[in-house]
Amino acid sequence: MTRPLRRALAALLLALLATPFAHAQSPGSWASQLDELTHWVETHRGPAPCTANCFALTRLRITGALEPGPLQFELEGAVLAPGAVDGPLFGPPDHVRLDHVTQDGLPAAVSFSDNRYFVRTDARRFVLRGSLAPRRRPGSQGGVPGALGSARGTVCC
Length: 157
What we know:
By secondary structure, the protein is α+β, with helices and mostly antiparallel strands. The chain folds into 2 domains: about 5-45, no CATH class; about 55-135, no CATH class.
């Protein structure tokens, strides 16, 4: 329900409550019709926003070399619920950097939280493309944290 419609309905209900009624609502009166309309609106609201398992990643392809970098990625996915959802991407942001991310050729709505990047989308099916580069930590020898010094290859599902 849109905000102006909610406000108008709330104002109308407030006016009804402020007016003293001498008798109960009769069937077919405008007050009973308003009650029926309110009941209909409440029962026909859209579904609640999705809170779990709203996003599916169907294919991920990473190409390029860590040195000199960056890697290129192509990720295909789908939104499994109506409305916009936050889909998890790579992370954490202090270990990897995403650049030039597009969704179906247009700039993507990418952000990050404390532990990962995410994309916000309502597209039922989409393709994300961009570059990803490991962040170098001060004093580290390579771009990948841990024992792996470098890697090269194509990963495809």
